[in-house]
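Table S2 (continued). Query chain:
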Amino acid sequence: MGSNYFLCRQSQISEPVKRVPAIDQMVGCCYKAPMSMTEKARKYVHSLRGEWPRLCAETGLSYHWICKFAQGVIKNPSAAFVEKLQKHEKRTS
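Corresponding output:
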C-alpha cells in the first residue's frame, strides 16, 4: 500500500481511500490513527537522546535495548518494557 493511501472505517469500507493533499490542507488534517503505546514510548526515548545512560539507570533497561528500540529494530517490545518507559515519563514530567 502506497504512502498516499489509508484505510478509513475498515469495517464499512473494504478498499483504501485515496488521500488528496489539497483537501487535507483545506480541512487541516485527515484521519490519523492515534499513537500506539509503543510509538509514544519511542518518541519519548528520542526526546531523551543524550540522556540514555541516565534513562537506563533509572528504568533498569539496558543501553543496548534502548538503542535498538529507538532505531526501530525492536518492532514489538515487551509490554513490561514499554510500561517502564511510561512510568519514567510520568515521574519526570
